[in-house]
Amino acid sequence: MVRRKKWIRLLAAALVFVCCRPAGSETVLAAEEETAVHHDYTAEEIRQIIEDGIAWKKEESGISGDTGLLNGPFLNSVGTTSGDWYALALGRIGEVDNLQGYAAVLEQNVLSRYETEQKLDSDKATEWHRIALTLLSLGQDPTDLTGEDGETVNLIADGVYNRGKTKDLGAQGLNGYIWGLLTLDSLRYRVPEDASDTRRDILDVMADSQLADGSFALAGTEEGKGDVDVTAMAVQALAPYYNASERFGTKSGRTVREIVDAALAFLSGQQTESGAFSSWGEENLESAAQVVLALCALGRNPASEEAFIKNGRTLLDGMMQFRMGDGGFVHSFSHDSENPDARPDTSNSMATEQALCALTALYRLYGNFRSFYDFRPEAEGAVKEQITDLEEQIGALDEGAQAGQIEALLEAYQAVPVSERSYVSNFWKLFDAMEQAGIPDDSDSILEAMETAEGGDGAVISIFEDGGEVSAHILFTEADAQTVSELPDPVTTESGGAVTALLDKLNKAENRGDYEELVPVLEEKQAQIEVILDEIESINQEILDSLYPYEEISLKDRETVKAISARIGSLSEYDRSRIQGAEDVLRAETRLDTWIRMLVIFAAAAAAAAVLSAVLVIRHRKRRRDRLERQMLLPSDLDDEDSDF
I want to staple 163 with a disulfide (CB 3.0 to 4.6 A). Which of 28, 169, 418, 540 is the partner? Predict the structure, then answer.
């Protein structure tokens, strides 16, 4: 009995995955099924994941109830990377929280540190950049922090364009230039003529820093040292200049588009089969999050950008795999001895903060809000509509378009305010058509249009409440329809992940009506798969109840074994692999059949022996009788012979 209980526990553990599948779960199939990890996320789902991440951080910080994250013990993190990135994300969400309170404490933190010789940091210009961006996200002006003595602190001047007067902007490597440019463009700050570093200076350095493979490294230009995170952050900084015609770099002048396209090609090549990215040999959340931010900065959807889909998994899938059940995100599923706080089975604060930033950038993209690091007030609705209409017209542009059509589109592009042209995300397609038709780009300089603001507060808008329609713009494609037509008939559970993902996508798609006839097809296949899964569960349960442990199976179990074996045999080869102990059942059936054959052979042999024995007895008796008869006849014969004399 003890052994039987042990076997039951072992089998029960093995059956947890199959027998406990939640309804509608994407993981209804085995973990090794590649199609089971893709999911098309709606804007509502993205919002919920963001809110779950905030809730996780609140719980981790000991903040309960309706109290916002930026309160109580969390204020002890003001002015640090572990606090400011959360505040920045919440500001970009427009979360109803203690934004003003955090900003007040942060401003005091800055003024106190400015009383020291090193001010915010002796080497890291990024301290100025992070704090300036955080203040902007909270609705403050980082150029005008006034102390008790009346002295004004300008974080943009001190940390970016005049940083070189105290310390080289690149003292900590390329990060200083990347984040300096991001900060400088966050409100389109004007750079004075006597500045130590201008926009062009920074752009030239970044252009010259790109490696031959398209990547960027934290320090140096040694080939093979490019890093995913640094490259993705460089793309974020360069994104506002993607449509610019200016060339940058002192080595060989290139447009930002050329630089960014090379960087994107590198990033696409580094993407893993899971849809995520590795940095320093470790697949992790933060690298994927930075690439999501990079694509969003370019106005490209990380959930559908073709170059960032690997093995059916999107970049968003790759990032979401690090989401934990408690709402937080794990850094990596690998143990890192150099980062013991980042456990492979526990949500991590840094990973969660970066996930929140990336998901907020994505939600802003879906809602047609300004990009994550653009803190200007929202563009007028008419301008947004103007850009959307232009993008649709450019998207419909054929390769053989006439010069007149191309010129009309260029005119429409130039009608967009130059300060907003970076939001025309597919201008590259129009530019290519212009080059082919020999039409020059005489548009106003985007670089010069960046020089507008002297200061001012960052704009705060509640993207969950103040926006209009927010959509992930999920579309069911002809390729998806082709995949439906190629599903096997009869279907097996091997296609379960694909069926679930396709039906989910079709139900969420804006163009669902165009493929309405496929809904019942997919629903029928899903129902068939459910029947098979139920049968698999039933078989596994019967094995657990009736046959374990296998060594105790006897002839009395033969009919049960044969019945279970027949049910297993009715399944496809793939589905049979889902039966726990299927081979043991088949071996048990073979063993029982062998026993039956042996019994039959033994019985036949026994019967033959009995017959042979009977024959021998009969023959023996006959011979004995014959002998007796001869013995009885012999004297008589002699008497007869004697009578002849």
Answer: 169
pLDDT of residue 591: 63
Radius of gyration of the chain (CA): 38
CB burial of residue 602 (10 Å; 0-12, 13-18, 19+): exposed
DSSP letter at 339 equals -
Say which range, 36-40, 173-177, 289-293, 641-645, has the weakest mean pLDDT.
641-645
Range of the domain at 561: 2-33+474-591
Tell me what percent of the residues of the chain surpass a pLDDT of 70: 86
Q: List beta partners, residue 279.
A: 282
Same domain for 387 and 411: yes
**Residue 271 DSSP symbol:** -
pLDDT over 80 (residue 634):
no
Burial class of 325 by CB neighbour count within 10 A (0 to 12, 13 to 18, 19+): exposed
Q: Which H helix or E strand runs over 261? A: helix 256-270
Please check whether residues 157 and 287 belong to one and the same domain.
Answer: yes
**Residue 467, pLDDT above cutoff 70:** no
Cα separation, 382 vs 415, whole angstroms: 12
Is 115 among the domain residues?
yes
3-state helix, strand, coil in the chain (%, to 5): 60, 5, 40
Q: Is the pLDDT of residue 405 over 60?
A: yes
Do residues 311 and 399 share a domain? no
Q: Are strands 282-284 and 277-279 parallel, antiparallel or unpaired?
A: antiparallel
Query: Domain check: are 398 and 529 in the same one?
Result: no
Domain count, the chain: 3
Euclidean distance between CA atoms 302 and 425, whole angstroms:
14
428 and 567, same structural domain? no
Residue 246 and residue 281 share a domain: yes
- Give per-residue pLDDT as tens, 442-455: 999 999 999 999 99
* Distance separating the N- and C-terminal Cα atoms of the chain: 94
Q: Name the residue among 18, 594, 494, 584 with its Cα closest to residue 564.
A: 584
Contact 241, 250 (CB under 8 A): no
pLDDT digits (tens, 9 = 90+) for 322-380: 999 999 999 988 776 666 666 778 999 999 999 999 999 999 999 999 999 999 999 99
Residue 287 in this model has a pLDDT that exceeds 80:
yes
- pLDDT at res. 14: 37
Residue 473: pLDDT band with limits 50, 70, 90: confident
Q: Please state, for a pLDDT cut of 90, what percent of the chain lies above it.
A: 69
Domain-located, residue 540: yes
* 243 part of a folded domain: yes
> Do 81 and 180 share a domain, yes or no?
yes
Residues in the chain: 645
* Three-state secondary structure string covering 421-441: HHHCCCHHHHHHHHHHHCCCC
d(CA 417, CA 217): 35
* Residue matched to tokens 């995949």: 483
Q: Are residues 144 and 287 in the same domain?
A: yes
Q: Does any domain span residue 467?
A: no
